[in-house]
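Notes to self after the Tuesday call (sharing in case useful).
The group wants a holo model before anyone commits to mutagenesis around the pocket. I volunteered. Ligand is magnesium ion. Logging inputs and output together so the record is complete.
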Amino acid sequence: MNGDEAANGTESTESSGMSGIDGVLFVTGTGTEVGKTVATAAVAALALAAGCTVAVLKPGQTGVGPDEAGDVDEVCRLAGPVHRVELARYPEPLAPDTAARRSGLPTVGPKRVAETVVELAEQYDLVLVEGAGGLLVRYDEEGHTLADMALATAELGLRPAVLLVAAAGLGTLNVTALSAEALRARRLDLAGVVVGCWPAEPDLASCCNLADLPASAGAPLLGVLPEGITGSPETPFQHSARISLAPALGGTWDAAAFTAGHRIDF
Ligand SMILES: Nc1ncnc2c1ncn2[C@@H]1O[C@H](COP(=O)(O)OP(=O)(O)OP(=O)(O)O)[C@@H](O)[C@H]1O
Ligand SMILES: C[C@H](N)[C@H](N)CCCCCC(=O)O
Ligand SMILES: [Mg+2]
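Result:
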């Protein structure tokens, strides 16, 4: 990234093979525990492998004590040397706004997050911002959400894209459609959907969802992370990430072939 690009926010991660993503990716999900951290780590691993520098920002980490590892630490453990930033940490496993209120700790809002993203984007090729839970989870008393943080980032001149991490099975299509609609209503760019944890033995709904998720999202399926990707002693995480994420995210995964291979005929 050159100085001019850093100044006007037009740098691209073409060098990492992430076509269409301009260096800032907000990672949200259809809910909590759907694999956002694992997906963030997979994207980071491929960017690092392509020689990019990567920062990972968690605006509000909840459910973790002062000495415990948070999501940014997990990304580092899985992907390798990323720069880690956490703006707030609350011990109770709740939405950030609720956890802040109950703990008496300060909230974190869109302005601070956007300013942090801009600072990081000046220093790192790729900035990944992982939300807590789903897109419209509240971070402060005014009800600001991860979507507001992405909008505030855009207002500062960057072009953030959003990645939606979805659960695999029955129930995911509705939340995917709702999340995509909320993004469209705010004119935020949904880059695509990644299934965070693809079961070893996928059921009928999971298999059908491969074809239906892109329709519900109005955006492509950009990856399917297999169950066990975080703990396979035989397969390095970076290799698993490469074969599980689509070329738009720097991998080799083929959505059409995977979907066809899991089609269940009548
Ligand atoms: N593909 C996968 N293989 C193995 N474990 C997975 C996979 N995806 C998710 N998990 C596990 O499921 C749990 C939830 O995943 P993860 O922490 O990525 O969710 P999250 O969406 O980031 O949750 P949060 O809203 O708390 O940030 C973790 O223990 C994680 O290791
Ligand atoms: C504690 C948990 N793992 C996340 N960090 C926070 C999830 C908040 C979800 C709120 C909700 O949608 O009801
Ligand atoms: Mg997480």
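Two things stood out.
The domain at 3-261 is CATH 3.40.50.300 (Rossmann fold).
The first strand starts at residue 24 and ends at 29.
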